[in-house]
User: Which sequence fits this backbone?
């Protein structure tokens, strides 16, 4: 079975691994520097990948990126505001060829996670599904008739976090108004806390994130409950929009906060009550591959072009 080097570029760290089928044979994480430059991370990433390939034969690299990718050129064309903006000027194909002597494929991170879960995880034997990834931002992807949805420019289905769910909502980093991501993501948490009308234990957290919100909500902190419920409602609304857009029978929720006990049942209840579709309402599932989902998407991604 062919092996691949897989890279998943996240907001705070970069995960890389040598994968073979459903097996992660070696896995490492690199902390992203404060500069927000992907070029500055390449020497460290190259060194890690060079060490990994010594443990087993590999035939290519698959890189999951949190931005938009031109399928014709394989280059990054747009990035999250203020993060990895230099990626649009990088020739990843030349980098992989010159540094690793390997070919490379780039894919949007949410779609890579969907590929991994479809082949090896919670979506095995499912043909119509949407993925909602909850974390620093909100990612998405869709599967219709067993095929990954890509669209004319390759961007179809991956901007679920930037669907408008509040017409009078805040301005998102993307420039749109009322995006799900602007209302319920890690980067939006400080603004949600600042808007609370009364003091909350969240105000005493030095670097508040979604985990802190859910943990404090379970203690009965009123402010944390308000923020938690806003996030749950935003995620459920985004999930329902994806169901209606892509006629999905399954909603897969991934990302660190997806493990919280409240998340999947809340979204399931919302979808059950509000989905307009024939037959049984779509089932909401939690991803089973965890942080390895996008890495394990390397095999099906490469198989799709071979």
Assistant:
């Amino acid at each position: 079975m062919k092996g691949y080097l897989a890279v998943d570029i996240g907001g705070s760290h970069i995960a890389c691994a040598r994968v073979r089928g459903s097996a992660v044979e070696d896995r490492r994480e690199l902390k992203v520097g404060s500069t927000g430059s992907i070029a500055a991370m390449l020497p460290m990433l190259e060194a890690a990948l060079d060490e990994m390939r010594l443990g087993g034969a590999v035939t290519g690299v698959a890189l999951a990126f949190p931005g938009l990718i031109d399928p014709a050129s394989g280059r990054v064309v747009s990035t999250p505001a203020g993060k990895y903006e230099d990626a649009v000027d990088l020739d990843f194909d030349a980098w992989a060829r010159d540094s690793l002597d390997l070919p490379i494929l780039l894919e949007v991170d949410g779609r890579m996670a969907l590929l991994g879960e479809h082949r090896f995880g919670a979506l095995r034997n499912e043909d119509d599904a949407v993925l909602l990834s909850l974390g620093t931002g909100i990612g998405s992807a869709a599967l219709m008739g067993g095929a990954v949805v890509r669209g004319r420019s390759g961007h179809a289905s991956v901007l679920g976090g930037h669907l408008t769910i509040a017409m009078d909502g805040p301005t998102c980093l993307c420039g749109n108004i009322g995006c799900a991501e602007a209302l319920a993501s890690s980067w939006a948490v400080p603004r949600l806390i600042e808007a609370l009308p009364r003091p909350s234990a969240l105000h005493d957290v030095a670097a508040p994130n979604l985990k802190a919100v859910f943990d404090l909500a379970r203690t009965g902190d009123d402010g944390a409950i308000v923020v938690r419920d806003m996030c749950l409602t935003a995620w459920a609304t985004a999930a329902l929009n994806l169901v209606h857009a892509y006629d999905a029978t399954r909603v897969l929720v991934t990302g660190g906060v997806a493990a919280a006990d409240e998340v999947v049942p809340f979204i399931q209840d919302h979808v059950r009550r509000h989905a307009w579709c024939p037959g049984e309402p779509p089932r909401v599932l939690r991803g089973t591959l965890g942080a390895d989902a996008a890495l394990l998407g390397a095999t099906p991604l490469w198989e799709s072009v071979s």
